[in-house]
């Protein structure tokens, strides 16, 4: 099992991002990419907090 439990969802989001790019939807791709990065950052921060000694 992967630590963040996000791999499948992340891969699906990458495919969606590529589709938006292929459709020439620059604004949609930028918005989607920003949301993807923010979500991944939140999950990473939560994971790292859970791994640090208290």
Main beta-sheet annotation: none
List how many beta strands DSSP finds: 0
Structural class: mainly alpha
The N- and C-terminal alpha carbons lie at a distance of: 24 Å
Describe the structure.
This protein has helices spanning 7-22, 26-51. It has two helices and no strands. Helix 1 packs antiparallel against helix 2 (26-51). The mean pLDDT is 89. With 54 residues, the protein is mostly helical.
Outline the fold blueprint:
Layout: H1 7-22, H2 26-51
Helix pairs in contact: 1-2
Short synopsis of the structure:
The chain is mainly α and 54 residues long.
Task: Provide the descriptors you would attach to this structure in a database record.
single chain; 54 residues; mainly alpha; 2 helices; 0% strand; elongated
């Amino acid at each position: 099992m992967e630590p963040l439990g996000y791999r499948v969802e992340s891969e699906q989001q990458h495919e969606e991002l590529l589709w938006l790019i292929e459709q020439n939807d620059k604004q949609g791709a930028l918005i989607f990419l920003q949301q993807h990065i923010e979500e991944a950052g939140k999950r990473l921060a939560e994971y790292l907090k859970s791994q640090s000694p208290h």
